[in-house]
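Task 17 of the worksheet. Students: predict the tertiary structure of the chain below and write it out as structure tokens. Keep your answer in the requested format; marks are given for formatting as well as content.
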Amino acid sequence: MTSTQSKQADMSASGEHQRSGGVAQKMSGAGAAPVALQTGQGSTRIAPEVVAKIAGLAARDIPGVHSMGSGVARRIGQLRELFPGGSQAASQGVSVDVGERQAAIDLNLVTEYGQSIVDITEAVRRSVTGQVEGMTGLKVTEVNIQVDDIHVESSQDNQQSRDQ
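Model answer:
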């Protein structure tokens, strides 16, 4: 059994899941519900979107990560940045599958030209795992990373940097 099959079997045992807008949500009752962590004094509910946002912010913190998302998502994010107060969504390029106590995370990112993709992706994996586990208490079973592009700085990028 592969790690993905094992993860899916474990998550299936804890409840049904639904992928919606790039974020998998645990189903309970009539609709999608956040993850609930039970203690003797009550429960804490963590929405899958929160897990995706934590993962996205942790990945962006790594030097060498230029941006996140597939081509279309990156373009929409760039357009959003043109408007006052607009910025790219923190969960752009992130898809999560959240179970009772575990989470699997898929990331799409663009790296900077000239830097080791292997080193960048390993650093992203460590950062995302540490932040998600530390902030939510969920066990991260896997962080799958797809490098969609490499950013090559152009003279136009240099001009935009100086203008800001």
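Marker's comment: Residues 1-32 have pLDDT under 50 and may be disordered. The two ends are 52 Å apart (CA to CA).
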